[in-house]
Amino acid sequence: MSDCPCGSRRAYAACCGPLHAGTPAPDAQALMRSRYSAYVMGDLDYLRASWHPTTRPADLDLGDTRATRWLGLEVRRHTVIDADHATVEFVARYKVGGAAAVRLHELSRFVREDGRWYYVDGTFPAK
């Protein structure tokens, strides 16, 4: 069994794999981790499906996925606002080709509709 890209230290088949196959995420943090794994794996279909339709971009380009190396995910905070709203603060690191590593620090908003969590949008906290 291979480790899940999200850094959970669980096997992909027992972590993000079922979500990528259509199982609803149990909470916003699980959805956020599964979205990170989808970026690592270049799974555009899952990224689109897990993005709320009101904020989903018309076109999603992951760039050169073969040249992108994902270095890790740190979930800093998962805040449940109410039964259908939550935020997740995270830092994801990656490199493209020989360039310096990029640090993406985001506070993401999530909403649950009809039993499914969706990514809505995010802000970038000041450094």
From TrEMBL:
Question: YchJ-like middle NTF2-like domain: which residues?
Answer: 28-122
Q: One Pfam family for this entry, by name?
A: YchJ_M-like
Q: So which domain of life are we looking at?
A: Bacteria
InterPro entries named in the record: NTF2-like_dom_sf, SEC_C_motif, YchJ-like, YchJ-like_M
Q: Which family does it belong to?
A: Belongs to the UPF0225 family.
Protein name, as recorded: UPF0225 protein GCM10025759_01310
Supply the source organism for this entry: Lysobacter panacisoli
